[in-house]
Automatic annotation (TrEMBL), chain A:
Pfam families in the record: ABC_tran
Domain ABC transporter residue range list: 16-246
Superkingdom field: Bacteria
Gene Ontology biological process terms from the UniProt entry: response to antibiotic
One GO cellular component term noted in the UniProt record for this chain: plasma membrane
Database matches in InterPro entries: AAA+_ATPase (IPR003593), ABC_transporter-like_ATP-bd (IPR003439), ABC_transporter_ATP-binding (IPR050763), P-loop_NTPase (IPR027417)
Official protein name in the record: ABC transporter ATP-binding protein
Membrane-related topology note: Peripheral membrane protein
Keyword presence, Nucleotide-binding: yes
PROSITE patterns: ABC_TRANSPORTER_2
Organism per entry: Kitasatospora aureofaciens
Keyword Chaperone on entry: no
TrEMBL record, chain B:
Organism (species): Kitasatospora aureofaciens
Regions crossing the membrane: 41-65, 77-95, 116-142, 148-168, 188-211, 251-272, 327-345, 351-379, 400-419, 425-450, 471-499, 505-527
Coiled coil: none
Name of the protein this chain belongs to: Transporter
Alphabetized UniProt keyword annotations: Membrane, Transmembrane, Transmembrane helix
C-alpha cells in the first residue's frame, strides 16, 4: 500500500495515513483496528477519554511502539519498514517525557541536535532561539531534573522542533502545565502550523482542542468514532457536548451517594 | 563524510556523528552528576581513588605472587571470576541511577542500531568502574604470566576481557530493562541483592580460610586449584588466563581461550543490539504488565478495631507490596541470617545472637513517616487527638511485632538446635523481645523528632534522598547505641545470671515485660510530640 508522491490534482494529501492498526496488551486490545487519514498542513486534535488508546496510537505512529498489525505511512514512508528515516523527519513529544535529567536545558538541546546530525553552529543558533521563544533562557543552565512540569514540556517541545520536522506529534502537551507556559507553547505551535507543517496532538481538554485545531479525530475504545474538520464533527454544538454524545456518557441521576452533604451534626469523635 | 548537501537535521545522521555524540553525552552526564552537590563529588572522587588504590595493590600483590608460589595464576582466574559475577550483577543495583545506560531516552531520535551500539559501548567504557576493572584484569594476567609470549597474548587478552565485562553488564541491563524497571523487577532486585551479599560473604569466608591459614610465610593456594581449573575455560575469564597458557607454551590452548572470549563478545553484542532495538519499540513495563487486582483475604479480622488495626493493616500490606519497605524488611532479616550462618560456619555461634533479631527488626520502626513519603498527608489529616497519635504509633509497633516475634522464635529454635543450647533458648527469646521493645520505643521517638526524606524514585536500593547523611547516621547509630543502653538492665541480668550460674529462664518473663514497658513509654513520649510536629514532619516526608 505504498502511497505515491502527492500529485497536484489531489486537494488534501495525507500527512499521516493509518490503516487497520491493532495493539494488544495481554488480552486487552488497546487499539482495535484504527484507521485514520490526517491531512497535511492541518492542526489536528486527537481526543478521547482516558484509556481510549490515544497514547498507544501515537506511539505506534511515531515508531516508538511496534504494532501487532496495520500500516502507518508518514508522508508516504512506511514507519515500520524504515522507522529511522521517519524519525528523522518527525518531531515527538511523548507522554512521560523520559529525558536525560542530568543535562541542563541548553545541553539537552545541543546533544539532541548533534545526535540528529545538525552542524554545531546551526544547533547553537536554533537552541538559543528556541530557548528564548519558549521563555527558558533564564533556566537554560539548570539541570532538567530541577525543571517544573511546564518547563519540562517546553524543553521537550524545543527538542522536538529543533530539526524543523514535517510533522509534529504531541502527547498531552498541556497536561500539568501552568497557564503561562501553556500560552507560550500555544504560540509556538500556532507559528509552526501557520508555516504549513502538520501538528497532531492528543488531549482531553475540549476547550483547548476547539481553540487550536481545525481538524479533529475522536477515539474511543481503540477505534476512531468520528473524524473530520472541527465544525463538521461538533455540528453546531460545543465540542464538549458533541464529544460526550459520541462517547455515550449518561448523566448520573443522583440516586447513589444519598448520604453526601447536608450533615452538620453528629460527627464522630 | 558523505558528499551530500549540508545536513538539515531531517536526514538520518551518519554513524560517526552519533558515536561521538553518545560519548560526549556520557562525559557530560558524568560531569553534571557531580556538579549537583559538592558532597557527592567528594564521595565520588574519594570512592574512585580508593577503588583504584585497592585495585592497584591487589594487582601488585598478584604480580608479586607470580613465581613465588605454586598456582599463583589460579588467584588471577578466581579474581576474574568474582569480577565477572560483579559486572553481571551490577545492573541489578545501578540500573535506575545510570541514565546513560537507559536507551529509552533516545527513542525519539533517528539512530541506526549499529552506531547506537558502537557509541553506547564506547560510552560505557568511560568511568571509574571500567578503569578499576582494567587494573584488576591486568593484575590477574600478571599473576600467571611467563615471558614475552605472555605479553603478546595479554595485549589481546586484557582489552578483550574488559570489553566482555562491560558488554556483559550492559547486555544484562538492556535484556532485563523492562523487568528491572517494573515493580516485580524491583522485588526481584531485592532478592538478587541479598543473594549477592550472601555470595560476597561466602567469598569472604573462603578467602579467609585460604589466606588466614598461613603457617609461617607460606600461603597455600591449592584450594583454588579445582575452582580455577573450571573457571579458566569460561569466557571472559579465559581471555585473562590465555597469557599464562601461551607463556607456558600451550599456544593452541591459549588461542582457544582467546577465541572463546571473542565468541562470547560477539554473542553479547548481538544480544545487546537485539535488546536495544526491542526496547525502543515496545511498551513500558507499566503498560505491558497486566496489573492484577489484589486478593482480599479475610485474615485481617484478627486485627484490633479502629485506627490501630487500620494502621497495622496498612503497614503490613506495604511491607509486602512496596519495594522499599520490602527491601528494608528483608535486609533486616537477611543481615541477621548472614551473621547467624557466618557464626555457625566459623564456630562462634550462640543462641544469644538472637538479640540481633531484636536490634535489626527494631530498625523497621525508624523513619516511619519519612517512609510514608508524599502519602503522609493522609496520616496527618486524620490525626486529631493525642489518642489518635498514640494509636497511629501503636498500630505500627504492632505491625512490626507481628512479624518480628515469630521470626525471633523460629530463628531461636534453629540456633538452639544448631548450638545445642536449649537451656539458653527461653532467656534468648526474652532478651530479643526486650531489645525489640527498646527498638520500638527509640524508633517512635526518632520518627517524630528526626524524620528524613526518602528519594522520590522508588529504587529500593537507595534509602535516602541526597544530603540526608547526617540524619540517617543519627537515626541508625542513635537507635543502635540507644537500644544497647536501654536494654542494659535486661542484658545486665543475663550477664549476671550466666556469670554466677543464676537462673536465666526468668528473662522469658522479664524481657517482654521490660520491653513492653519501654515501648509503651517511648510511644507515649513520641505521640505527645507527634501532633505538634506534623508540619515539620510533613516538610521532611515530601521531597522538595
Amino acid at each position: 500500500m505504498q502511497a505515491s508522491a502527492p500529485s497536484p490534482s489531489e486537494p488534501a494529501p495525507s500527512a499521516v495515513s493509518i490503516q487497520e492498526l491493532w495493539k494488544h496488551f495481554g488480552s486487552q486490545a488497546a487499539v482495535a483496528g484504527l484507521s485514520l487519514e490526517l491531512p497535511a498542513g492541518a492542526f489536528i486534535g486527537l481526543v478521547g477519554p482516558n484509556g481510549a488508546g490515544k497514547t498507544t496510537t501515537l506511539s505506534m505512529v511515531t515508531g516508538l511502539l511496534r504494532p501487532d498489525q496495520g500500516t502507518v505511512l508518514v508522508h508516504g514512508t512506511d514507519v515500520w519498514a524504515d522507522p529511522v528515516t521517519v524519525k528523522a523527519r518527525i518531531g515527538i513529544l511523548p507522554e512521560g517525557l523520559r529525558m536525560f535529567e542530568r543535562l541542563s536545558g541548553r545541553e539537552l538541546l545541543q546533544y539532541t541536535g548533534r545526535l540528529r546530525g545538525l552542524p554545531a553552529t546551526e544547533v547553537d543558533r536554533r537552541t538559543e532561539e528556541l530557548l528564548a521563544v519558549l521563555d527558558l533562557a533564564r533556566d537554560a543552565d539548570k539541570l532538567v531534573a530541577d525543571y517544573s512540569t511546564g518547563m519540562r514540556k517546553k524543553v521537550g517541545l524545543a527538542a522536538a522542533l529543533l530539526h524543523n520536522p514535517d510533522v509534529l506529534f504531541l502527547d498531552e502537551p498541556f497536561e500539568g502545565v501552568d497557564p503561562v507556559s501553556a500560552q507560550t507553547i500555544r504560540g509556538v505551535l500556532k507559528r509552526y502550523a501557520a508555516a504549513g507543517s502538520t501538528v497532531v496532538f492528543s488531549s482531553h481538554v475540549m476547550e483547548l482542542v476547539e481553540q487550536l485545531c481545525d481538524w479533529v479525530a475522536v477515539v474511543n475504545a481503540g477505534r476512531v468514532i468520528a473524524q473530520g474538520p472541527l465544525d463538521s464533527v461538533r455540528g453546531g454544538r460545543s465540542l464538549h457536548e458533541a464529544f460526550l454524545e459520541l462517547i455515550g456518557v449518561r448523566e448520573d441521576d443522583g440516586q447513589a451517594l444519598g448520604w453526601l452533604g447536608g450533615g452538620h451534626s453528629g460527627s464522630a469523635r | 563524510m558523505t558528499g551530500a548537501a549540508v545536513p538539515d537535521g531531517r536526514t538520518v545522521p551518519d554513524g560517526r556523528t552519533v558515536v561521538r555524540g553518545l560519548v560526549a553525552l556520557k562525559l557530560r552526564l558524568l560531569r553534571n552528576g557531580l556538579r549537583r552537590s559538592p558532597g557527592r563529588t567528594a564521595v565520588y572522587v574519594v570512592g574512585g581513588v580508593l577503588g583504584l588504590v585497592v585495585a592497584g595493590f591487589t594487582a601488585l600483590g598478584m604480580a608479586v605472587l607470580n613465581g613465588r608460589y605454586a598456582g599463583s595464576g589460579d588467584t588471577g582466574v578466581v579474581l576474574l571470576g568474582v569480577l565477572t559475577l560483579g559486572w553481571a550483577a551490577l545492573p541489578l543495583f545501578l540500573f535506575s541511577s545510570d541514565e546513560s545506560a537507559d536507551p529509552t531516552r533516545l527513542t525519539m531520535l533517528p539512530l541506526r542500531p549499529g552506531p547506537l551500539l558502537r557509541g553506547s559501548l564506547l560510552a560505557s567504557l568511560i568511568g571509574p568502574g571500567p578503569l578499576i576493572s582494567l587494573v584488576l584484569v591486568t593484575g590477574a594476567v600478571l599473576s600467571g604470566a611467563v615471558g614475552g609470549s605472555s605479553a603478546a597474548a595479554a595485549v589481546v587478552g586484557v582489552p578483550l576481557a574488559l570489553l566482555c565485562l562491560v558488554t556483559l553488564s550492559r547486555a544484562v541491563a538492556a535484556g532485563n530493562a523492562r523487568m528491572l524497571s517494573s515493580r516485580r523487577g524491583k522485588d526481584f532486585a531485592i532478592f538478587g541483592g541479598l543473594a549477592f551479599a550472601l555470595l560476597v560473604q561466602a567469598a569472604n569466608v573462603g578467602s579467609q580460610s585460604i589466606f588466614g591459614r598461613q603457617h609461617g610465610k607460606d600461603i597455600d593456594l591449592s584450594p583454588l586449584r579445582p575452582i580455577a581449573a573450571v573457571l579458566r575455560w569460561i569466557p571472559p575469564i579465559s581471555a585473562a588466563d590465555a597469557p599464562r597458557t601461551v607463556g607456558e607454551g600451550h599456544y593452541a590452548f591459549g588461542l582457544l581461550q582467546l577465541a572463546a572470549a571473542g565468541a562470547l563478545l560477539v554473542l553479547l553484542l548481538r544480544w545487546w543490539r537485539g535488546s536495544l532495538q526491542e526496547l525502543m519499540v515496545t511498551a513500558d513495563a507499566s503498560t505491558v504488565e497486566v496489573a492484577r487486582g489484589v486478593q482480599n483475604t479475610g485474615g485481617w479480622r484478627f486485627l484490633p478495631e479502629g485506627r490501630t488495626g487500620a494502621v497495622m493493616q496498612r503497614h503490613l500490606r506495604y511491607a509486602w507490596r512496596e519495594p522499599r519497605a520490602k527491601a528494608a524488611l528483608f535486609t533486616s532479616v537477611g543481615m541477621t541470617l548472614v551473621i547467624c550462618v557466618l557464626s555457625v560456619v566459623q564456630g562462634w555461634s550462640s543462641v544469644y545472637l538472637l538479640a540481633m533479631t531484636g536490634t535489626f527488626l527494631g530498625l523497621q520502626m525508624l523513619n516511619l513517616f519519612g517512609m510514608d513519603g508524599s502519602a503522609f498527608w493522609m496520616v496527618a489529616a486524620t490525626l486529631r487527638t493525642p489518642a489518635d497519635a498514640r494509636d497511629e504509633l501503636r498500630g505500627r509497633a504492632y505491625a512490626v511485632l507481628s512479624y518480628a516475634v515469630p521470626v525471633a522464635v523460629v530463628l531461636g529454635l534453629v540456633l538452639a538446635a544448631v548450638t545445642g543450647d536449649w537451656a539458653g533458648l527461653p532467656s534468648a527469646v526474652g532478651l530479643a523481645v526486650a531489645v525489640l521493645g527498646c527498638g520500638i520505643a527509640l524508633g517512635s521517638v526518632f520518627s517524630v523528632l528526626a524524620p528524613y526524606t526518602m528519594p522520590a524514585d522508588s529504587n529500593p536500593m537507595r534509602n535516602a534522598a541526597p544530603g540526608q547523611g547526617g540524619l540517617i547516621l543519627l537515626n541508625q547509630f542513635g537507635s543502635m547505641i540507644g537500644v544497647a543502653v536501654l536494654a542494659l538492665p535486661v542484658g545486665g541480668y543475663l550477664f549476671w545470671a550466666l556469670a554466677s550460674d543464676g537462673p536465666t529462664w526468668p528473662l522469658l518473663l522479664l524481657g517482654p515485660l521490660y520491653g513492653g514497658l519501654v515501648a509503651t513509654l517511648g510511644i507515649r513520649l513520641a505521640a505527645a510530640r507527634l501532633l505538634e510536629r506534623i508540619p515539620e514532619i510533613m516538610a521532611k516526608a515530601i521531597e522538595r
